[in-house]
From TrEMBL:
Record keyword Transmembrane helix present: no
Keyword Repeat set for record: yes
Record's keyword terms, sorted: Repeat, TPR repeat
Organism: Drosophila ananassae (Fruit fly)
PANTHER family assigned: CILIA- AND FLAGELLA-ASSOCIATED PROTEIN 70
Entry protein name: Uncharacterized protein, isoform A
């Protein structure tokens, strides 16, 4: 029976009416034994079960649990007593398997008197044999049972010839039987083949793996009414990051894990003990035992990390700090821990508990409803003092309630509660190395313990095989194994392999085209060496394409079939190569070969300007630039991707969906396009009345699936965490936090150079976020706003807004409300005091720009202009520094022009802008303002500057014609007008030009032209020389 408890707990409940459950005897019989070590000393087997009473089936009452060697072949039988359906007794047996130990009894003889003859000879032989066993009397490694004052030959030798001897029990082999296999609903019998493995310190001549056979059976069921639904394992691994100033006594330490109520009450049952661990060992991290053992074995056998006691669960040193769920808020860099030099307090043992349906329901309710946490307390006893608490920490088991989670390792932060070792006395001189060590101690991460919780089935579910105890279940010993990886190593999906194969093929063809263009290769013989290597590379790439795409579609079994399949692949890939060559030709071979950087800059210049023009309401010029950009880049993947983002930023979701209806070559934009596709699907499901009710649930599933497909990217896990936090679902928060924290060591995807985001044009700030997690979240936030996924960005920012400054929080939330059309008309504007200095002035100007955006959104442009003009008070930015107030200046210019304030318009636009196209827009509007002020020459200069943007804008040339006509330059006016109409599909559409031409009195125009023939290019040079 289990050991009696020292103190009584609560008062016993009234006994139920009816007979008590009967006692059930579990019979343990040694059926056979072989391969015993050869020795002249007697052997004996000791069996024990965590202090339970073991009765030997003999005529005399015997509870020693010992089988001497002369009984090995007599099939001795023992009994363990269980009360039927007693959960406590069953759990005690589950946590304390039957320990089987093979001892050698060594009894050296020493006589009190100097007796010659046989006694003396025997004495010498015994001492010699004692030396042969290879274990010194001072060795503490073997288990020694010292029995003093034993009378040798008590029945045959007279009292005066008796001798005091010391009996030494040497542990040779060890193993264990798991009696939990017999806890079925009917009587059962198990035949167990048990190998007793030798202890590591036993002499080589005595090392032998002993084969034993045991019969375990019951005549009545131990669990007749109970239904087991689950089993849990609690493993305490080690305590890490020990500081030098800690005063620790590892051998006297005791770790206590208990359930603690989150809401302390008045009653005394706030803590519910769960389990404890004793006798920790201070070892180098790299030298710790790898396998986990039962805690009962670790207390009973030293050393316990032997083959006969090992479980199938182990510590993988190369993954020691992987997939750990850290205490929320704990910051630790595991790479700073030196496994070869740092020490740890090592335990590596576990407790096992079997759960009934009622127990599982209580545990599920306590964890799911956030009622309890696990308190981890470490006590030690130094000398004869009372146990003192040296460490304490809290383990939040919420993640175990997340669907599918049944195995989790926790890094629990431990606060040191004991006394600190006094610092060493200061020396006259302090070495550099010593000072560095001191600094390292100050910045050293916190002490933490690794604790693993494991269930055979996720909490709330039933492990069906545990209910029926199938034969296969027993044979495979799955009751001793609970180490299933939560994140299995899933192979790469076939779709990704195929996409990667085609991407490699496309890249190879593009590289060949670029090489031919750059090296001006006219025939293969000119670069024969290069193409010989290229053919070998192509062969490897084609084999992967054929194997992953064509051979999976059409399996082959002979060489002829595979040759025919290669011919099919050739016919399919030839048009693909032709399409790539056509794309290079459409883009221009010069651009494709060496001018892609210039082309990319031009695309971004176009799109930056288009976004600004749409933001200020100049849709006519924006449409002109967009049409030109499409004409110049008819099949450019980068341009198509940037246009997808542009449509998302302005909420043109129908246009964005057209991107996915087209075929695209494999590229590195796929990660971002998949995010946009997920967002569009969510938008469609929410807009559909039939799926609106379930759209959020479908979204969370889609994000989870996306995260699983991109395991090394934390973005999806962070978004999932923020959604769960929004819905106050703690298990989901814990699970998502575990996943993204585990991926922090991996590199985030780096986006290539891209156009300015619409968000960056409206609001360009970098909040000062104190925590690393907050900074990581803000990086994810910026990715979502750059893609135009403003709802996702709003959810992410909602998780970190409390740690941002009030001004930053106001600006971000206000701008998000504008983009999402969630801004109330009666929204109150706020202005903040940022202090003094240049940075403070810029922050105040950005605050004013956000307020101006609000007024512009409301349609109150005059009030918006008052806020926008704050940025005009700032000093100019550096040459290579981007101006974040371009939108405010452009809007101020357009608003002032509409209101007739040409001076303010000129003041707002007479600033440097990034990009040629944006500068063209500013110069064009300034030219019109100067024209209205009748400053014709300055206006002519502004319009002339517009012609240097390397793009044809008919309105610019129309104004140049108008100005030259008013200034009497009739020939130049005609040439400019002709150049304005050089593109038949694009014409002058600024009504001001025609209005001003109608206002000119034709009678004052001299139609006689005596200027020599002059080209438009010459005129441009002449016009550019003005002023």
């Amino acid at each position: 029976m289990p050991p009696k408890k020292g103190k009584k707990g609560k008062e016993a409940e009234p006994k139920k009416i009816g007979p008590q459950p009967p006692n059930v005897f579990l019979y343990i019989q040694l059926a056979g034994i072989s391969r015993l070590p050869t020795t002249r000393h007697p052997l004996e087997i000791h069996i024990s079960q965590g202090g339970s009473l073991i009765v030997k089936c003999t005529e005399h009452y015997n509870t020693d649990g010992i089988i001497p060697q002369w009984e090995f072949d007599t099939r001795p039988t023992f009994t363990l007593i269980f009360q039927q359906d007693n959960v406590d007794r069953i759990n005690h047996a589950a946590d304390n398997p039957l320990l089987v130990e093979l001892f050698m009894r060594v009894t050296p003889f020493r006589s009190i008197f100097g007796v010659d003859g046989a006694y003396g000879e025997e004495e010498g032989e015994e001492e010699e044999d004692g030396d042969k066993i290879g274990i010194s009397s001072n060795s503490s490694t073997p288990v020694e049972v010292i029995i003093k004052n034993i009378d040798r030959h008590h029945n045959s030798v007279p009292e005066q010839f008796t001798s005091r001897v010391t009996v030494k029990m040497v542990l040779l082999c060890v193993g264990y039987l798991d009696v939990i296999k017999l806890f079925g609903h009917s009587r059962s019998m198990v035949r167990e083949q048990l190998y007793l493995y030798p202890m590591p310190d036993v002499e080589e001549s005595l090392r032998s793996t002993v084969h034993t056979e045991w019969h375990l059976y019951t005549l009545l069921p131990i669990a007749k009414q109970l239904t087991f639904t689950n089993m849990s394992f609690v493993t305490f691994e080690s305590i890490y990051n020990l500081r030098e100033e800690y005063i620790l006594d590892a051998s006297s330490m005791r770790v206590v894990i208990s359930f603690r109520s989150r809401i302390p009450g008045d009653r005394n049952d706030m803590n519910v003990p769960l389990c404890d661990f004793e006798y920790l060992e201070r070892l180098c991290i790299a030298q710790q035992p790898l396998h986990h053992v039962f805690e009962s074995f670790r207390r009973a056998v030293q050393p316990s990390n032997v083959t006969g006691l090992k479980s199938t669960m182990e510590v993988e040193t190369y993954r020691l700090f992987d997939e750990l769920l850290c205490t929320d808020g704990m910051t630790v860099d595991f790479s700073d821990i030196d496994q070869g030099g740092d020490d740890a307090l090592v335990c590596n043992s576990f407790h096992r508990f079997i759960l009934t349906q009622k127990m599982a329901d209580i545990l599920s309710y306590a964890i799911t409803c956030q009622q309890y946490v696990l308190a981890v307390e470490v006590f030690q006893t130094i000398g004869y003092t009372k146990p003192q608490k040296v460490f304490q920490g809290i383990l939040d088991p919420s993640i175990m309630a997340y669907p599918g989670v049944q195995n989790m390792r926790f890094a629990v932060q431990l606060d040191y509660m004991g006394k600190l070792r006094p610092p060493p006395k200061r020396q006259g001189t302090v070495s550099i190395a010593s000072s560095q060590r001191t600094e390292n101690n100050v910045s050293r991460p916190p002490t933490f313990a690794i604790i693993k919780l494991c269930l055979l089935a996720p909490i709330g579910e039933i492990y069906k095989e545990l209910q029926v105890f199938r034969d296969s279940f027993i044979r495979q010993n799955r009751l001793l194994f609970c180490d299933h990886p939560l994140v299995p190593q899933v192979g790469i999906p076939l779709e990704e392999i195929q996409a990667d194969s085609f991407a490699r093929f496309d890249k190879f063809i593009r590289d060949c085209i670029i090489f031919i263009i750059q090296k001006r290769v006219n025939k293969i013989e000119d670069r024969k060496q290069h193409f010989c290597c290229a053919v070998q590379n192509l062969a490897n790439i084609l084999m992967k394409v054929i194997g992953s795409v064509y051979n999976t579609r059409t399996p082959t079994s002979t060489n002829v079939d595979f040759s025919n399949l290669c011919a099919v692949a050739y016919n399919d890939l030839e048009p693909r190569v032709h399409a790539l060559v056509e794309q290079a030709e459409n883009d221009g071979f010069e651009t494709f070969g060496g001018g892609r950087a210039e082309q990319s800059d031009r695309i971004m210049d176009y799109l930056n300007t288009i976004k600004l023009l749409r933001a200020v309401g100049d849709t006519r010029t924006a449409a002109l630039f967009l049409d030109k950009a499409k004409t110049e880049n008819p099949s450019d993947e980068r341009f198509n991707f940037y246009m997808l983002i542009l449509h998302m930023e302005f909420g043109n979701y129908d246009l964005a969906k057209e991107y996915y209806g087209q075929s695209h070559l494999a590229n590195h934009y796929e990660y971002y396009t998949n995010w946009i596709k997920l967002y569009l699907n969510y938008y469609d499901s929410r807009a559909n009345p039939e799926t609106e009710a379930d759209c959020t649930e479908c979204l969370l599933r889609s994000i989870t699936s996306f995260a699983e497909r991109n395991l090394r990217q934390p973005d999806a896990w962070i978004l999932l965490y923020c959604y769960y936090k929004l819905f106050r679902y703690e298990p989901g928060c814990a699970y998502a936090r575990w996943r993204f924290e585990d991926n922090q060591g991996h590199n985030r995807p780096t986006s290539p150079t891209a156009p300015h985001s619409l968000w960056g044009l409206f609001l360009a700030i970098n909040p000062n976020i104190p925590s690393k997690r907050g900074q990581l979240f803000f990086e994810v936030f910026k990715m979502f706003v750059r893609l135009g996924l403003y709802e996702f960005a709003q959810v992410v920012f909602g998780a970190i807004e409390n740690i941002c400054a009030e001004s930053d929080r106001y600006m971000v939330k206000t701008q998000l409300a504008i983009f999402l059309n969630q801004l109330d008309y009666d929204f109150e504007l706020s202005s903040y005091d940022f202090g003094e200095g240049l940075e403070a002035d810029r922050a105040a100007a950005m605050n004013a720009q956000v307020n101006g955006n609000v007024e512009y959104y409301r349609g109150r442009k005059q009030e918006a202009a008052l806020y926008y003009q704050v940025c005009l008070t700032l000093p100019p930015f550096e040459e290579n520094e981007r101006d974040p107030f371009e939108l405010g200046k452009l809007r101020l210019g357009y608003i002032s022009y509409e209101m007739g304030d040409n001076y303010k318009c000129i003041e707002a636009l007479n600033n440097p802008f990034s990009g040629k196209m944006t500068t063209l827009v500013a110069d064009y509007l300034m030219g019109k303002s100067y024209y209205k002020r009748d400053h014709l020459e300055v206006a002519l200069h502004c319009f002339a500057k517009c012609t240097t943007a390397e793009t044809h804008v008919p309105n610019v040339w129309g104004f140049l014609a108008l100005l030259n006509l008013r200034m009497g330059q009739n020939y130049k006016a005609i040439e400019c007008w002709k150049y304005a109409k050089i593109e038949p599909d694009r014409s002058i559409d600024d009504e001001m030009i025609f209005t001003e031409l109608d206002a000119i009195n034709v009678d004052t125009i001299d139609l006689f032209i005596d200027v020599p023939c002059q080209s438009a290019e010459d005129f441009v040079e002449e016009a550019g020389s003005i002023n």
